[in-house]
Design goal:
Elements: E1 5-7, H1 9-14, H2 18-25, H3 38-48, E2 58-60, E3 64-71, E4 78-86, H4 90-93, E5 109-110, E6 113-114, H5 119-124, E7 130-137, H6 154-179
Antiparallel strand pairs: 1-2, 3-4, 4-7, 5-6
Helix pairs in contact: 2-6, 3-6
Length: 181
């Protein structure tokens, strides 16, 4: 099994460093002057993932529907919020009496990727799609310090923050994905 998250450096390199260009074009997304690296890391993540950059500079396993890094409003620490495709709970699969031949559908897939059903799909069939929401604190120890301003190697700091975030998220999410089909 591969990692839950990875940085697609080959795709980026083939497109002349599009993430660094994207960061430079979106410097307004960053707030400078904070002693903690959290806001900066969250902005770097946002700019590296869809919908800001599509396909993302940071990619993820097909069972991950969305992944966000957010600042905890209680103490300012970094939290990750990851939504995963999950099988139905055992209580629902033990018996299908509730199913009653209504044509229930699970997660639609397109080219192996889990997708939300279209409005047309929802008009034809009922859907029951299970997800897991993982909300977890992310260690800050290896995150680079927030640059002092927009001319302080923002692109390199953003890429370093992503390397750390991807590593930490893989440590947290890989064991969960390993247990899912």
């Amino acid at each position: 099994m591969g990692n839950a998250f990875w940085i697609d450096q080959d795709f980026d390199r083939d497109r002349d460093g599009r993430y660094a260009v994207h960061v430079r074009k979106n410097l307004a997304e960053f707030e400078f002057g904070d002693i903690a690296p959290v806001r900066f890391a969250c902005a770097a993540w946002r700019l590296a993932t869809p919908p800001s950059l599509s396909p993302g500079y940071v990619r993820w396993d097909r069972r991950i529907l969305e992944a966000a890094c957010v600042r905890n409003t209680w103490d300012g620490t970094l939290n990750a919020r990851v939504r995963l495709v999950s099988p139905l709970p055992e209580e629902l699969t033990r018996s299908r009496t509730w199913w009653r031949d209504r044509g229930w559908q699970g997660w639609p897939e397109t080219f192996g990727q889990y997708v939300e059903p279209t409005q047309q799909d929802l008009a034809r069939s009922p859907f029951l799609r299970a997800t897991l929401l993982v909300e977890v604190p992310v260690p800050l120890a290896d995150l680079p310090p927030e640059p002092e301003g927009p001319h302080d190697a923002v692109e390199q700091s953003a890429e370093r923050a992503l390397v750390v975030l991807v590593r930490e998220l893989n440590d947290l999410i890989n064991p969960i994905l390993a247990q899912l089909p």
